[in-house]
Amino acid sequence: MEKPLVGGQAVIEGVMMRGFGKVATAVREPNGNINVQVKPVNSIAERFPILKLPFLRGTVNLIESLILGMKSLSFSAQAAGEEDEQLSDNELALTILFAFAMAAVLFIAIPTFGAKFLHSITDDPFYFNLAEGFLRLAIFILYIAAISRMKDIQRVFQYHGAEHKTIFCYEADLPLTVENVKKFPRLHPRCGTAFLLIVMIVSIFVFAFLGWPDLWLRILSRILLLPVVAGISYEIIRFAGRSKNSLVRLATLPGLWLQYLTTREPDDSMIEVAIKSLEAVKD
Fold this sequence. Notes:
Elements: E1 7-11, E2 14-19, E3 22-28, E4 34-40, H1 44-47, H2 57-79, H3 89-114, H4 125-147, H5 151-171, H6 178-182, H7 192-207, H8 215-224, H9 226-242, H10 246-251, H11 253-262, H12 268-282
Helix pairs in contact: 2-9, 3-4, 3-8, 4-7, 5-12, 7-9, 7-11
């Protein structure tokens, strides 16, 4: 039997793990203790099984992961002493909407606006869409490279590395100890960074044949087709995470290479936090 999948996310001074119908967030408090919060995951797909079908489950998983991730970030900020209290539901919704709006501007509006300067070279809409896609990809990589240089973000990326190593150890059926976890690589094929890279690449092909209407219609079409792109990307990364095929492994290399920017080698105390989080969802 296949092992149940476990996913995770680095948060402020901690790690969130999701699996076995639960989500657990473990955070290192200023006094050195590890604060663990465990909550059940009530997925909408349990009430509407059709949402578990391939290409639909990816969009559902992405939205739910975003909400759970923001809640875990809020808890970690409070537990780590950086915030006095957690975000309310209304504050959380506004934060997600603001993040989505910023992402739409950075990765949709700017690339599709910038691609119009190709008019001096060609008038073919296909090439405009390709140029937009590659410009979006370049902005994404530059954005990741820029934030990876920030000191506070580098610490989060160390917890990101601890999350990956711990999941690898779990998948290898080894006891979750610091010494065992340290043996594994920090680059994981099912990482969210790899998923976002696949989203960028898939979007190039999905949007390439949409023509070149007015700017507002181009932006709207990209937003409306995001569930399609997310659904395809999710199936690709899910397949790649389980496949042992050498060609599939080769195709996932760019996503692994990008994780050199979004992960760092963790110290033992960070691995302890990641282990606590994974143990909490398994118990």
